[in-house]
Amino acid sequence: MSGGRARGRRRRSSLLGVVVVVVAAVVVVAFPQLLDGSRDGSGPGAGSGPGAGSGPGAGSSPSVAVPAAVPEGAAQATVERVVDGDTVIVVLADGGARERVRLIGVDTPETVQPDASVDCFGPEASAFTTTSLPAGSAVWLEADPSQGDADRYDRLLRYVWTPAGVMLNHDLVAQGYGREDTYDDPYRYRDAFVAAEATAEGSGVGLWSACG
């Protein structure tokens, strides 16, 4: 009987040894795969839960914080280049269309009009808009139904808001880089623009003192 029990114990020990070896082999093979899965986002829990797949590297561009002053519904765009003081070329964030934008409510001195000389304070106005809207910067475009969507040159008619939460149209008038401009129907912010022009003219800032 003692000999049988001894043989039974040896068989169980052998089986136990085989099991241990098998388990160890599984761990050696599976552990690196699990580790790699956790690194590349394909491991347990990947692709599930709020925001899964929406972070950096998931094909989405970093979001840009919208300044509090920007009206709801304004469309985000990226500045491609400034044409002159009151005209800028942008690429719309929604769809990627390239558009030429004419600022509502302001007329800056000409710098690029064909067959015409550069107007007094035109370069200064262009420089101010270029500084306010560096190439590659985000802007927000506010439409005004009273002015229509575009002018006769197919330029979008918009108020342009900067990342600093400033409406460039009004800023140009207030700092003397352009004159208030009402084309046909009054626009949404006309009263504020008229008041800004009166203050700028009374203070002799910008073109009001430079351009007789």
Helix content: 25-40%
CA-CA gap between termini: 124 Å
Order of helices and strands: HEEEEHEEHEHH
Q: Quick one: overall form?
A: globular
Which structural category do the helix and sheet elements fall into?
alpha+beta
Strand content: 15-25%
β-strand number: 7
SS element count, helices: 5
Q: How does the major sheet shape up?
A: 5 strands, mixed, barrel
What is the CA-atom radius of gyration, in angstroms?
Answer: 33 Å
Task: Note poorly predicted spans.
Answer: 1-13, 15-62
Going across the major beta sheet, what is the strand order?
1-2-3-6-5
- Mean pLDDT, to the nearest integer, reads 80
Polypeptide structure, described:
The protein is an alpha+beta fold. The protein has helices at residues 2-40, 122-132, 168-174, 190-203, 207-210; strands at residues 75-84, 87-92, 98-103, 106-107, 138-142, 156-161, 179-180. The model is unreliable at 1-13 and 15-62 (pLDDT under 50).
Question: How would you summarize what this structure contains?
Answer:
The chain is of the alpha+beta class and 212 residues long.
